[in-house]
Amino acid sequence: MDPRTDPTVPPAGAPAAVPCPGAPASALPAAPGSSSAGEVYEHLVRWGPHARTDLARLLGLSGPTLTRLTRELLEAGLLRELPPLPQLKGRPQQPLDVDEDHARFIGIKITAQSVYAAVVTVRGVALEELSTDLSSADPASVVEETVALCAPLVAAHPRVAGVGVGIGAQVGADGAVAASAMLGWYEPFPLRSVLEERLGLPVSVSNDFHALLEGLSWFGVGRRHRSFAVITIGAGVGVGSVVETEVHRGRLHLAGLTGSLPTITRDGCGVPLRDVASTAHVLEAARARGAIAPGQGLDALVDAARAGEEPALEVARDVAHAVAVAGAGLVGVLDPEALILGGEAVDLLRLGTDFPEALRSRLTRAQRDVVVRLLPAEFDDWARGAAVIAVRRFIGGEGA
């Protein structure tokens, strides 16, 4: 293996690799012991406290079975009993809820420039966040920086039960990265197994966009909707949908990851959305218009547009138009309750145009009540989505 991509060889000038002080498997917080217990636990994680009778009815379990499962979860410290609630008839009901102090999870978002990490509770509440710039995007450097970022978080939060990693890449069921054009990885790399060995913790790896969809569905703005679609614009362009809490991944797990959703530019040309809304194309257009100087990036473009500089506003209008056309097509096909937009270039949609109105003007009258939400441009939702992948593995559900 080339030493530049061998995770056991530190980057030039870096100190010798030191394993992160992760907890041995025997010391990890207890997880649900069966799929049935996991189903009960997941329902309480996602939907909040419930009385036992309600849980049995909602999950289709008999009273004795639910009693046994909840007793196991209580004894393991995963659940807690809340004060009884008086009822109009019969005995008071004693709701059950998850014990959010039982376990912590680390969500990591890897970009070509930086690594972001957040420690969250099992309900996705962020407790601490850290980030670091990458000296290089090669696999060895990414592993070293990720391990270094996790070390103080694991030390400060000793009940970490798992780590989730979101990365702009094709990721296999074994957590190995098949390829990542964004990071310049063109050969398979066993990211999950390498990080598990270095961290001493269970690690789950997912495509970052799919992880974002999971996070929005479980704990984000998508939680209040039975169905929603998502478009992200930035380093990559992603398009996805969630129906009845399930992320649609597609036959090859490539649904929405190709950036090829058709759109139309303001001058009437048909192009893939990535050719208008990806960061590389946005910056190229901005420099051609003189909106930013050579060497300046997305932040400078957004600042110029906020300052009312017309060349920058024209670029923002071009992006907003293309995304509105593509978004209207997506809403027309999927008919979701909400359309959520995010990514590091999403602030361009807030500048130079009324984006929600531009979108709705292209919809049929019946669909114009679709909820339109713009996420912050930061990576909080992405890191939290990665943590959800770790939570799902902890519970016993999906998440490589």
Can you give me a brief rundown of this structure?
36% of the residues lie in helices and 19% in strands. It is of the alpha/beta class.
What does this protein look like?
It contains twelve helices and 16 strands. With about 400 residues, the protein is an alpha/beta fold. The protein folds into three domains: about 35-100, Arc Repressor Mutant, subunit A (Orthogonal Bundle); about 100-215 and about 380-395, Nucleotidyltransferase, domain 5 (2-Layer Sandwich), CATH 3.30.420.40; about 225-375, Nucleotidyltransferase, domain 5, CATH 3.30.420.40. Strands 5-4-3-6-9 form a five-stranded mixed β-sheet. It has a five-stranded mixed β-sheet with strand order 12-11-10-15-16, with helices on both faces. A hairpin with a 5-residue loop joins strand 10 and strand 11. The radius of gyration is 23 Å and the shape is globular. The chain starts with about 35 loop residues before the first helix and ends in a 5-residue tail after the last helix.
Low-pLDDT segments: 1-19
General shape: globular
Termini separation comes to 25 Å
Structural class: alpha/beta
Count, helices: 12
Major sheet: arrangement of strands: 5-4-3-6-9
**What's the architecture of the largest domain in CATH terms?**
2-Layer Sandwich
CATH superfamily of the largest domain: ATPase, nucleotide binding domain
Q: For this structure, what is the CATH class of the largest domain?
A: Alpha Beta
Number of domains: 3
The main sheet comes to: 5 strands, mixed
What order do the helices and strands follow?
A: HHHEEEEEHEEEHEHEEEEEHHHHEHEH
Proportion of residues in β-strands:
15-25%
Number of strands: 16
C-alpha Rg, in Å?
23 Å
Helix fraction bin? 25-40%
Overall pLDDT level? 91
CATH topology of the largest domain: Nucleotidyltransferase, domain 5
